[in-house]
Amino acid sequence: MDYQTVRAVDPDVADALDAEVDRQRETLSMIASENHVSEAVLNAQGSVLTNKYAEGYPDKRYYAGCENADAVEELAIERAKELWGAEHVNVQPHSGSQANMAVYFAVLQPGDKILSLDLTHGGHLSHGHPANFAGKFYEVEQYEVDAETGRIDYDEVQELAEQFDPDMVVSGYSAYPREVEWDQIQAAADAADAYHMADIAHITGLVAAGVHPSPVGIADFVTGSTHKTIRAGRGGIVMTDEEFADDVDSAVFPGAQGGPLMHNIAGKAVGFGEALQPEFTEYAEQVVANAKAIGDRLQEHGFGLVSGGTDTHLVLVDLRESHPDVSGGDAEAALEAVGIVLNANTVPGETRSAFDPSGIRIGTPALTARGFDEEAMETVADLIARVVDNVEDEAVLAEVAAEVDSLTDAHPLYE
Ligand SMILES: *Cc1c(COP(=O)(O)O)cnc(C)c1O
Q1: Separation of alpha carbons 119 and 175, rounded Å
Q2: Residue-wise over 228-251: b if at least 16 C-beta within 10 A, else e?
Q3: Which end of the chain is least crowded, N or C, by CB within 10 Å?
Q4: In 64-144, which residue ranges form alpha helices assigned H by DSSP?
Q5: Block mean pLDDT (10 aa), the chain, length 415
Q6: Ligand 1 atom 5, closest CA
Q7: Do the Cβ atoms of 20 and 3 come closer than 8 Å?
Q8: What is the pLDDT of residue 2?
Q9: Burial, 133: exposed, middle or buried (Cβ in 10 Å; 0-12, 13-18, 19+)?
Q10: Measured distance CA(343)–CA(333) in Å, rounded
């Protein structure tokens, strides 16, 4: 893979693109929200549809010449319906955050009340953080995970719903390693006569493959990002029932956005088509098996995991007991230096700061896309442990970097 056409007119940008191909090939991408999409998805996303304005929806556009845009968007919608079993799907949100914005705009008024998980406990900015539009437009109350178990305390959610009387309860998380019990959140929403939005951004692929329970048919709205575990074109999606179909569609366009990013929608259509193949179920099962393998091995090395393990594509390591002198930021930097790319993350009951927290979040979707199995993941866990045990030992870091090289060589990317 190279960018010769770009290079011919713009060597500066081509340099950065080629360097990024090398970076992705030569490092282990373990950021839980990232993935490596197929070359077909890349190709569709880089297509001529970027030129097309298609404001509106298939067969109801505000511009001429939309027949091919219609075909692509209809394919994306039909495939999404098949993947997740939703009655109505909108594939136009530019991102997962805008999918959430559209749902809020569809049924809430400014000043209405949202109950959601705290960001430092695994929630997302768009669930009501003060720095985000959701925190500015709405009154927000937050629940936390249980300090002991690291799991959602559904009784607390229910109690808060009764006390705070929210208009919307939000479930679905960015750094939560356990299965979500959607019906328990639904019960809390019912207690307050509130809407329930389940944001499956991280676990879209796991839900589509049936390796994580689905909120479709339980929550009023299901939103997601399309570039995380589902491995499709970059962007967002909203799923709902016929009842809310028109409200959601008009909240996406013209409520929150102008013209859809039709090239990204082409990437969504191609990725969703790939996810309908039987191999995708195997992929999603392997993603979870790999997360368990890495979690188990890290525990053998003495690391503490939030909630004691994982049911999903990620593990959240709490370094405080095993490595009190190593912050998440120290670990992230040392690991990046050897070619293992992940992120420092807050943990429940955080005692450092959001900028240099006490944990690291480790995800398996991208490495699984490269063909890593449990055995390879155990090797990766051994390397992570060696680095975190020796963050300042240049000799050890150099040895690990060489081992990362042999792992990336054994698992080629975009050949
Ligand atoms: C990633 C994520 C989003 C949306 O992210 P975008 O970067 O806007 O696509 C929304 N909700 C959760 C829980 C997420 O993890």
Answers
A1: 9
A2: bbbbbbbbbbbbbeeebbebbbeb
A3: C
A4: 67-84, 96-107, 133-137
A5: 94 98 98 98 98 98 97 98 98 98 98 96 94 96 94 97 98 97 98 98 98 98 98 98 98 97 98 98 98 98 98 98 97 98 94 93 98 98 98 97 98 95
A6: 96
A7: no
A8: 86
A9: middle
A10: 9
Could you give the CA distance from residue 224 to residue 236 in angstroms, rounded to a whole number? 6
Q: Which two tokens mark 325?
A: 């002198």
CA 274 and chain centroid, separation = 18
Longest dimension (CA), the chain: 63
Pocket test for ligand 1, best of 92, 133, 174, 221 (most atoms within 8 A of CB): 174
Residue with tokens 């959602």: 152
Question: Residue 1: what pLDDT?
Answer: 85
CA distance 200 to 414: 28
Distance between Cα 95 and ligand 1 center (Å)? 7
pLDDT of residue 147: 86
User: Under DSSP, is residue 406 helix (H, G, I), strand (E, B) or coil?
Assistant: helix
3-state SS assignment for residue 258:
coil
Q: How far apart are CA 346 and CA 306, in angstroms?
A: 11
3-state secondary structure (DSSP) of residue 240? strand
Tokens 């050890």 label which residue? 396
Q: Quick one: CA dihedral 20, 21, 27, 32, positive or negative?
A: positive
Cα–Cα distances in angstroms (integers) from residue 203 to residues 226, 229, 278, 301, in the given order: 10, 6, 18, 27
Q: Whose CA is closest to 203, among 89, 344, 314, 315?
A: 314
- Residues 284-298 as b/e (b if ≥16 CB within 10 A, e otherwise) read bebbbbbbbbbbbbb
196 phi and psi, to 5 degrees?
Answer: -125, 120
- 3-state SS, residue 354: coil
Could you tell me the sign of the dihedral formed by the alpha carbons of 21, 25, 27, 31, in that order?
positive
**Cα→Cα distances 104→5, 57, 359, Å:** 42, 20, 31
State how far the Cα of 371 lies from the Cα of 410, in Å rounded to an integer. 9
How many whole angstroms from 304 Cα to the centroid of ligand 1? Answer: 26
Q: Domains in the chain, start-ordered, CATH in brackets?
A: 43-275 (3.40.640.10), 278-410 (3.90.1150.10)
